[in-house]
Amino acid sequence: MPETKVKKSEDFNEWYNEIVELADLCDKRYPIKGMNIWRPYGWKLMNHVDRLIRDEMIKTNHQEVCFPLLIPESYFKKEEEHIEGFGKEVFWVTHAGLTPLEERWLLRPTSETAMYPIFSLWIRSHTDLPLKTFQIVNTFRYETKQTRAFIRVREIHFFEAHTCHVDFTDAERQIQEDKEIADHLLQKLSLPYVFSKRPEWDKFAGAYYTISIDVLMPSGRTLQIGSIHQYRDNFAKPYEISYETEKGDHSFCHQTTYGMSERLLGALVGVHGDNKGLVMPPEVAPLQVVIIPIIFKGKEQTVLETSRTLQNELLEENIRSFIDDRDITPGNKYYDWELKGVPLRVEIGPRDVEKNALTLVRRDSGLKKSIPITNAEQMIKTELKDLEHILYTNAEKLLKDNMHQVLTIEEATQKTGIVALPWCGNKDCALEIENVLEGNTLGEPIENAGCSEHCPVCGSPAKTWMRYARSY
Ligand code: ZN
Predict the structure, then answer these.
(1) What is the rounded average pLDDT for all residues in the chain?
(2) In this predicted model, what pLDDT tens digit does every residue of 247-277 receive, in sequence order?
(3) Distance in Å, CA 389 to ligand 1 centroid
């Protein structure tokens, strides 16, 4: 069976760059670096991921909104830390036609500064709270580093939830809900992850604290696919988002945000794919089953009819399928759909029809089996569930095998993936470790119950474990 030019097992990064185009997810030939074209197959995949996110948002009473793309400079400049964090990354609009604008506008890098002046108008009383909103839009950041499809781009397909609460405690409850939402979603994508509380110097600009959601790619590098931020009243004060309490006095809101992006696709591609191409988790696979009629002269009719009957039955079970009756060899069809990662392939030939059976082939293991046509859709459902489970188990093994807890820097240098070391709380000690490991500080485990060891740099008693990893 033909395989991709570069093997995933040999050169992950090259394999990734190749597969995203070969499998028709995107086209990288647009002349602005980091702005790729979503091809139909990739866009369908993204839409299925978005659907799962929307479902989670609706279940938790978030309301979908859609704010303008352009933000006036005066709105943007109200929160100082935030400007410092994003200032160098924004694209500016300076002219309308030939006329310079009185006030510059910027393309949203994220939407706090577009939304919060308006939230201050929407929120009047404690009865308006909590305000739970989200939007799925494109955001823009001027990336200067090497771009990579879905992972580091300048136009980003982005999900952002923004909430306002009466106090810190209620905002903390929201953070808890966000973690549960992330868990549900990532289970469906068969992506195991870690939550880490980012260090002070690497939290989101303007946040009180930031929790990052990271997955481990097979290269041993982590990919941050989302983040959850507790803002306290850091934004509410400059943006004057306050409300009248039950007693009649005024209080500032406490706020949270939760963001994820098309990096989720990057994670799906990287974690589940193999030397033959993508492997799509059934929940988001644009096609879950491809039906390949094996045509012999004189038997076309019965084979095609059987294929169509099966497709109708799959449709009734909400299983996404496609009959590939193109005039090319079955071998070429197998190759195409394996590359695109369709979870199940069904082959129907004249002999299968005679036996009232069909051949089922799994994309993950390549295992083939003959099953009866009667009630085939039930068997197919079971196989899809099992495939999802296997993808999760494999990815979980990759993560577990590459998470280490060690006491010395020397041990850390011998490990790949995510390494946790005791930390005294001093930034310089963490930076020293980053330097030696040529990695980044990922953050503290959020379930952290302290650490009774000693800092491997300065020897002081450790306050916590701290994770480090090379990251994308
Ligand atoms: Zn130290």
Answers:
(1) 95
(2) 999 999 999 999 999 999 999 999 999 999 9
(3) 42
Q: Are the C-beta atoms of residues 196 and 444 closer than 8 Å to each other?
A: yes
Residues 450-463 have a mean pLDDT of: 95
Distance from the alpha carbon of residue 70 to the mean position of ligand 1, in angstroms: 44
Tokens (6 digits) for 19: 């597969």
Token pair for 148? 């990579």
Mean local confidence (pLDDT), 158-184 = 98
Reduced DSSP (H G I as helix, E B as strand, rest coil) percent helix, strand, coil of the chain, to 5? 35, 30, 35
pLDDT at 286 over 90: yes
CA of 355 to the centre of ligand 1 (A): 71
> With 60 as the cut, is the pLDDT of residue 1 above it?
no
CATH class of 403-469: alpha beta
Distance 418 CA to ligand 1 centre (A): 19
DSSP of 115-174: HHHHHHHH--BGGG-SEEEEEEEEEE----SPPBTTTB-SEEEEEEEEEEESSHHHHHHH
Q: What is the largest CA-CA distance in the chain?
A: 84
CA 384 to centroid of ligand 1, rounded, Å: 49
Cβ–Cβ under 8 Å, residues 89 and 142: yes
DSSP state of 78: T
Architecture of the domain defined by 289-383: 3-Layer(aba) Sandwich (3.40)
Q: Backbone phi, then psi, for 212, in 5-degree steps? A: -95, 150
Q: Where are the domains of the chain?
A: 12-272, 289-383, 403-469
Q: Which CATH superfamily is domain 12-272 in?
A: Bira Bifunctional Protein; Domain 2 (3.30.930.10)
> pLDDT tens-digit profile of 104-127?
999 999 999 999 999 999 999 999
- 172 Cα: distance to centroid of ligand 1 (angstroms): 30
